[in-house]
Specification:
The complex is a heterodimer of chains A (113) and B (110). Chain A has 113 residues and is mostly beta strands. Chain A has strands spanning 5-7, 10-13, 19-24, 31-37, 43-50, 53-57, 65-68, 75-79, 88-95, 103-104, 108-112. The mean pLDDT of chain A is 94. Chain B has 110 residues and is mostly beta strands. Classes of the chains: A mainly beta (113), B mainly beta (110).
């Protein structure tokens, strides 16, 4: 079964540093997403990406965040100048427009110290 | 008002029991409804989509009430492996962002 792959599975970074979280969506999917889940809280939408541009972003997704699809397979989330409150699980997802093929990756646990 | 509200539980039930819980959603424009399952510190996994007429998938039955804007999930003959957090999820469409509830925790005991 096709899957969404995320790397790394766990990243520890110092406050103020930049991090890049990487995702490889399912190859024939056209919509890509990032969600996050702070420990003990609900899963929250960050951003959706379609046709090489952001289609929607939440109020969480401020200037500190950016997304990119640098080549035909990777989809990245960059967090500039990380804060303690950025510590969370970050889930990448992709979806298939022809049916409900919404698939989540296994997540990257980001710990900001 | 939260977009999706769920009873957090926990629901502690013995094996073989039936457990049911609901969620409510606030956006009447929502068109797609789902139950996801999330195990501790893992990604959400689709359990089932929820259709207007109600639908069943093995031991799981989902109902949707658009007029009252609530969705329910019923688990029959609970197994130990059903222990998880169940997430109520709504969306405007199949390819739109998902709005998650905070989850209902179910623990099935032997």
């Amino acid at each position: 079964e096709p899957e969404v792959t995320q790397t790394p599975s766990h990243q520890v970074t110092q406050m103020g540093q930049e991090v890049i979280l990487r995702c490889v969506p399912i190859s024939n999917h056209l919509y890509f997403y990032w969600y996050r889940q702070i420990l003990g809280q609900k899963v929250e939408f960050l951003v959706s990406f379609y046709n090489n541009e952001i289609s929607e972003k939440s109020e969480i997704f401020d200037d500190q965040f950016s997304v990119e699809r640098p080549d035909g397979s990777n989809f990245t989330l960059k967090i500039r100048s990380t804060k303690l409150e950025d510590s969370a699980m970050y889930f990448c997802a992709s979806s298939d427009p022809t049916d409900y093929g919404y698939t989540f990756g296994s997540g990257t646990r980001l710990t900001v110290v | 008002r939260k977009e999706v509200e769920q009873d957090p539980g926990p629901f502690n039930v013995p094996e073989g029991a039936t457990v049911a819980f609901n969620c409510t959603y606030s956006n009447s424009a929502s068109q797609s409804f789902f139950w996801y399952r999330q195990d501790c510190r893992k990604e959400p996994k689709l359990l089932m989509s929820v259709y207007s007429s109600g639908n069943e998938d093995g031991r799981f039955t989902a109902q949707l009430n658009r007029a009252s804007q609530y969705i329910s999930l019923l688990i029959r003959d609970s197994k130990l492996s059903d222990s998880a957090t169940y997430l109520c999820v709504v969306s405007r469409s199949n390819d739109y962002k998902l709005s998650f509830g905070a989850g209902t925790t179910v623990t099935v005991r032997a």
